[in-house]
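User: I've been trying to design a sequence by hand for this structure and keep getting stuck. Would you show me what you'd pick, starting by listing the structure so we're on the same page?

Assistant: Good idea, let's start from the same input. This is the structure you sent:
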């Protein structure tokens, strides 16, 4: 009678049965990273409101504020990702019987996965609180302006400039809500997606401005050209600001991924008691 021999998976392959990714440690590191990101973001909003002033010559300039904001995003990514990655490596299960190079790779992967999970959780869970925090801080600084802006669209300010009467006491300063609504729709549709007023529309707008404000046709044409130029300038500035913010966010994500991976290798080495020997080697 021939005895049947059962071969265990770890004996046949030489690999331990422990999973290569410690998900509890990864999840813990990701949650801590998200919490630190929100805390540092709140601190950054308060710091930004303290250095920005509406008075000329007070506070930092707009360029300095933009650069400082971008650098602070990178600092947030470095701190939160480093601590989250360190926890993901330090809290993992020890891999017994695995080569040291493979352990180093797994620790790096632990930190990278923790960063990826924190990024996804942050995009899903922290988008609304962070947006509310930033908008709330801005509204606290300019409460009256925000309340007025909530009742109007982005083009209303330009229409105010266009339809401002030359003589405020004249009858030309009437309500004209229907005309204003028509102008608002015309400007919104024309400047959407980088467009511009057509020649016929520009001529019509100049006639409306002349009739509403009491200006001569030449002065009305001049005002229309100035407002159109201002609209295009502001739209271009908004486009550049959005592009710069996207570049800063990309840089912060890349730095965060690197810091999380590096910190996880440190945490894993400290967990196994091999970090000092690795550094000396």
């Amino acid at each position: 009678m021939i005895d049947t021999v059962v071969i265990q998976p770890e004996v046949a392959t030489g690999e331990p049965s422990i999973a290569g990714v410690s998900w509890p440690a990864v999840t813990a590191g990701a949650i801590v990273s998200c919490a630190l990101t929100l805390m540092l973001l709140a601190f950054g909003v308060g710091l930004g409101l303290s250095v920005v002033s509406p008075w000329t010559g007070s506070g930092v300039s707009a360029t300095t504020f933009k650069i400082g904001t971008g650098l602070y995003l990178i600092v947030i990514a470095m701190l939160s990702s480093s601590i989250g990655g360190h926890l993901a490596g330090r809290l993992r299960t020890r891999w017994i019987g695995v080569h040291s190079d493979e352990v180093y790779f797994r620790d790096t992967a632990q930190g990278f996965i923790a960063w990826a999970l924190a990024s996804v959780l942050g995009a899903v869970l922290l988008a609304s609180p962070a947006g509310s925090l930033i908008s709330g801080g801005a509204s606290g600084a300019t409460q009256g302006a925000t309340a007025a802006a909530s009742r109007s669209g982005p083009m209303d300010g330009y229409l105010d400039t266009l339809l401002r009467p030359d003589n405020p006491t004249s009858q030309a300063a009437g309500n004209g809500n229907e005309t204003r609504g028509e102008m608002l729709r015309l400007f919104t549709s024309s400047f959407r997606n980088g467009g511009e007023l057509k020649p016929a529309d520009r001529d019509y707008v100049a006639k409306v401005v002349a009739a509403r404000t009491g200006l001569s046709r030449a002065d009305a044409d001049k005002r229309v050209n100035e407002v159109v130029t201002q609209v295009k300038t502001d739209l271009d500035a908004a486009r550049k600001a959005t592009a710069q913010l996207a570049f800063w966010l990309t840089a912060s994500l890349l730095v965060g991924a690197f810091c999380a991976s590096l910190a996880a290798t440190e945490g894993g080495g400290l967990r196994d008691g091999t970090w000092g020997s690795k550094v000396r080697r």
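That's my pick for every position. To get oriented when you compare it with your attempt: DSSP finds eleven helices and no strands in the chain. Residues 21-148+244-280 form one domain.
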